[in-house]
What we know:
Two copies of one chain form a homodimer. Chain A has helices at about 5-20, 30-35, 40-45, 50-70, 80-95, 100-110, 115-140, 145-165, 170-185. Chain A is an all-alpha fold. In chain A, about 45% of the residues are buried. The structure holds a DNA duplex (30 and 30 nucleotides).
Amino acid sequence: xxxxxxxxERLLDAAGELFYRDGVNIGVDALCKAAGVSKKSMYxxxxxxxxxxxxxxxxxxxxxxxxxxxxxxxxxxxxERxLAVFEKQDLLAAGNEFxxxxxxxxxxxxxxxxxxxxxVARHFKQRLTDFFRSELVAAGVDDPDxxxxxxxxxxxxxxxxxxxxxxxxNGVGVRMAAAMLDAAGVRAAELAGQAR
Amino acid sequence: xxxxxxxxERLLDAAGELFYRDGVNIGVDALCKAAGVSKKSMYxxxxxxxxxxxxxxxxxxxxxxxxxxxxxxxxxxxxERxLAVFEKQDLLAAGNEFxxxxxxxxxxxxxxxxxxxxxVARHFKQRLTDFFRSELVAAGVDDPDxxxxxxxxxxxxxxxxxxxxxxxxNGVGVRMAAAMLDAAGVRAAELAGQAR
DNA sequence: CACACTCTAAACCGATCGGTTTCCAAACAC
DNA sequence: GTGTTTGGAAACCGATCGGTTTAGAGTGTG
Lengths: 196, 196
């Protein structure tokens, strides 16, 4: 295992997984047991369970983002780069370990928008919208702000569908995004922001 | 209050509200206290808390649906009837008592798709898709099934946005649905399934 | 060696969890 | 009147909640 990782790393890893899989209401005893860390250590490293929720969400955030967004070096078109996000979501949702977007799920479970975990969730959702927006600007669409918001909503709606139906998406998210890009004039053939 | 309602009705009402506002992890003690019903009565009326979750969700379902969907007698066009759903969602999300679609929230919190509450959630989400589909058929769109699914995802994505951002939607959901209808050729002027 | 530091294991705290039981008052039957 | 039923108040059950504390093993450093 990762027994040689520091207690903090083990806690953040276990928390990221268990809060996602079982919900934020899982007990700290089970959490510490899974992480192989004593409660004393946990409460030395984190002020409270709420803080651990927020920090673990912030720690899984970048990797979740990296799992969705294509790397900067990928020379694909904006359309392809945007659709790649929905294709990766399609893959994630097809697994039986999918419980929705961790940021949305956490915000939904916490209910309180001022909870530190909700603040982290808000931040990472904005980053996805920002990614869409920058690609849409490169594609030269008319209203990249509105379109980026709509793509984010399509993304979260697809997530919700996979959770509620407990089924794979089978491309419905990808096709929805593709239809939206079609309607906005972001064709497959055209290159990023360039004529011909 | 509704003290003259039966204990069952009081329980379902209180459960529908508290499970939504505080999450399904709220305790049965708090629930019974809010309903003015003893735990003994509750466990005579419902086999378990899980069953109460499912039955209360099923009991609020129709009213939530009725709050969103226009009545059958409303002589509006399919486009207007579909957009009316998003406009009512916009109103709901503007209130400070909005915590997302109760069906999606419950499914997300329960995690287990076989939980009776998850089954109820699945059922009511399908009914919204069915409503969209029947309107799209009336509007004569090419692929009403796919479009109904996409509108449902737009709806749930808008819900997620309102929750994560803890803000009103300010029409972003309505505009997204309108854009989708535009792209599908469901114009404001045309009447239901009739050539001019 | 002694000392300091970090860490786990586990007991402990009061509160609450889902669920059961006892007791008793009010409402009903006849 | 005497039953019977309904249902609320509250005690009770073992388990778990978030959080604190004690004890002691392990790992340095000097």
